[in-house]
């Protein structure tokens, strides 16, 4: 009995820790819907309480949302939080929950990225680079630095997948120059690599193209543009 109580107390403590890191809220637009697509991670059975699903989601870095079926006692875990009912399959008993990281302010539009442990924000509005920088700064973040190939790939996948409906044409990334070299917002210098579109960086003689956009029609490859051009932008907030 004593052992059971101690185990229960430890379990409670652990659940509380989980609850602080990942907050999961029910999405009532997705009742009686389940998903079986590329974002499906795994399924767990004999789950007696939704709270157990929260903990399992917490333990898996890829998990962003989950569904619980109180009839069949199954949990299904997913790697995306962007869902609408038509994407799913109608099956009774499912309730769906979207989880967020305590440090990513979803009301502000930030989503958690488990791979880099950052929160990412895509602006709706188009604006100049300086305004974009101010916007991100006001949200305790900065324009995203794509200083590794893995991070370039991550943003490409995000912009052509989960966020594709929100992108109109091109987005500022956090790469600028005053003179050479190109420098990322996080202070790192752009090496020889980069994801430039062919013949870029290039600027007509009568312009000064010290900022960089990733373009949808170029498969998110980069072009340098004038910093006073208008574009959407992506902010990142490091929470590690
Ligand atoms: C940033 O915050 C300041 C102070 O609240 C505000 O005046 C400014 O308009 C904000 N900038 C942007 C681009 O939202």
Instruction: Name the CATH homologous superfamily of the largest domain.
Output: Mannose-Binding Protein A, subunit A
Number of strands: 15
- Tally the structural domains: 2
The molecules bound to the chains, other than polymers, are: 2-acetamido-2-deoxy-beta-D-glucopyranose
Kindly name the structural category: alpha+beta
Q: For the residues shown, what is the average pLDDT?
A: 87
| First-last Cα distance | 40 Å
Subunit arrangement of the protein: single chain
Radius of gyration: 21 Å
Number of helices: 4
Report the helical percentage.
10-25%
Shape: elongated
CATH topology of the largest domain: Mannose-Binding Protein A, Chain A
* Succession of helices and strands: HEEEHEEEEEEHEHEEEEE
In terms of DSSP E residues, the strand content is 25-35%
Name of the CATH first level of the largest domain: Alpha Beta
Low-confidence sequence ranges: 8-20
């Amino acid at each position: 009995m004593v052992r059971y109580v101690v185990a229960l107390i430890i379990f409670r403590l652990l659940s509380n820790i989980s609850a602080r890191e990942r907050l999961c809220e029910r999405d009532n637009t997705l009742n009686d819907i389940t998903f079986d697509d590329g974002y499906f991670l795994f399924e767990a059975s004999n789950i007696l309480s939704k709270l157990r699903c929260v903990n399992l989601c917490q333990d898996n870095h890829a998990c962003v949302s989950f569904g619980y079926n109180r009839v069949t006692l199954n949990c299904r875990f997913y790697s995306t939080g962007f869902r609408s009912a038509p994407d799913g399959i109608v099956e009774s008993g499912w309730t769906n929950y979207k989880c967020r990281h305590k440090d990513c302010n979803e009301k502000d539009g930030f989503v958690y990225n488990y791979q880099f442990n950052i929160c990412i924000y895509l602006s709706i509005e188009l604006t100049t680079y300086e305004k974009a920088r101010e916007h991100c700064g006001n949200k305790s973040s900065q324009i995203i630095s794509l200083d590794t190939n893995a991070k370039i790939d991550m943003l490409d996948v995000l912009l052509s997948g989960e966020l594709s409906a929100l992108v109109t044409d091109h987005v500022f990334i956090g790469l600028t120059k005053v003179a050479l070299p190109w420098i990322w917002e996080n202070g790192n210098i752009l090496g020889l690599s980069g994801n430039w579109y062919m013949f870029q960086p290039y600027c007509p003689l009568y312009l000064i193209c010290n900022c960089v956009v990733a373009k949808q029609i170029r498969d998110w490859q980069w072009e340098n543009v004038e910093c006073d051009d208008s574009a959407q932008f992506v902010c990142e907030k490091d929470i590690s």
